[in-house]
């Protein structure tokens, strides 16, 4: 008899999944899929140990979603899980974009792509904004060459690395339509949904806590309103916007304390005040309002 | 005469598995691998030709093995060695170097004596194989 519980415990999968649950807020569909993949790999390994003929599951993936929804973070976690289950040998992540893969002139692309593939061996190759590889409007574009090499590597080096393609959903869909080879070689399509307001707030709380700051009740309310405003404004990129906002808030907090001078309690050093948040231009209509205002005031005063 | 240069040269030739294990050891220590080949095995010939560029930023030995196999296919009758370079300050030298391929026949070296003034004798070594022009030696 084979004890799945013991194997599950020995592989320390639960530990990784728990970490994933704690560090990543929301993303329920993604988490479920990761759990399924972990289960599949565990069973595949048990089958192998019992000498049951097992084909290696294809684990190339595509992550689609808006910016800041956690695609890169999940890719790093995924590499760790795959490494832990013995699917990849090293478990590192090599992040590549079009610049790293496609060359400038004839004969430049192949060595560049080959080099990236070699560096990713034994780990995960994460190609961000993969659709930029394919430029149908320019038929002399070298992207096609990189695509063909990647396809070949995804097929021949299946045992050596896992390729993850990432990008916006709609553009990835067109990319896959134009390159059906990719679509058929990818076993898992994961979509990262946008975060809700509650989830963004939870993310903010987590980040603040990790950086040993804290909100007081009024500043928590202010940040909630900040997020409400920010989500309506252009260039909103989910968790990344939250992080950037917190960075600016920390800056204002430090400034406020220095200006205030005198003696402060240790608690003051970690507390975020309502004023630190309310100063943000997001409350005054955001980025778009600024140029208009500048024009109205006149450049001299800026 | 079997050439003995670098590490492990008194051991039987390595299998691919063994080469890979040594390469992984280098990579785990952060030593980039370079593959070099020559058909002039004189012990003072330190400058072998490099196969491509040194393999920087590799994490997994399989990537290096691919190059090793490619080099061996191309120069199957040459001496090929793998070197791991330790760039850390204070060392900055080759940390590990071993031969992974050698010609089927190794003719060895001739010892020549030159008689100079006052009946002095000067000795020098030269490889039999280098009598032939480069590329046609083995």
Radius of gyration of chain A: 24 Å
Q: Provide the spatial order of strands within the biggest beta sheet of chain B.
A: 2-1-3-4
What is the strand arrangement across the widest sheet of chain A? 2-3-4-1-5
Low-confidence stretches of chain B: none
User: Given the helix and strand composition of chain B, which structural class is it?
Assistant: alpha+beta
Main sheet specs of chain A: 5 strands, parallel
Average predicted confidence as pLDDT of chain A: 86
Distance between the amino and carboxyl termini of chain B:
14 Å
- The CATH homologous superfamily of the domain at 16-107 in chain B is named Ribulose bisphosphate carboxylase, small subunit
Count every helix of chain A, treating DSSP H or I runs of 4 or more residues as helices: 15
Quickly give the structural class of chain A. Answer: alpha/beta
Mind telling me which CATH architecture of the domain at 16-107 in chain B this is?
2-Layer Sandwich
Greatest interface and its participating residue counts: A-B, 9 and 9 residues
N-end to C-end Cα span of chain A: 77 Å
Characterize the biggest β-sheet of chain B.
Answer: 4 strands, antiparallel
Strand fraction of chain A:
5-15%
Can you summarize this structure?
The complex is a heterodimer of chains A (302) and B (138). By secondary structure, chain A is an alpha/beta fold. Chain A has helices spanning 4-10, 13-23, 28-49, 71-84, 98-101, 109-120, 143-156, 169-178, 180-185, 197-210, 217-232, 238-260, 266-270, 274-278, 289-297; strands at 61-65, 93-96, 124-128, 162-167, 188-192, 214-215, 271-272.
Task: Describe the fold and architecture.
The complex is a heterodimer of chains A (302) and B (138). Helices cover 57% and strands 10% of the residues of chain A. Chain A has 15 helices and seven strands. In chain A, the strands form two sheets. Chain A has a five-stranded parallel β-sheet, with helices on both faces. Chain A has a two-stranded parallel sheet with strand order 6-7. In chain A, helix 6 packs parallel to helix 7. The longest helix of chain A has 23 residues. Chain B has a domain of 92 residues: Ribulose 1,5 Bisphosphate Carboxylase/Oxygenase (2-Layer Sandwich). Chain B contains two helices and six strands. Chain B is of the alpha+beta class and 138 residues long. At the A-B interface, loops of A face helix 2 of B.
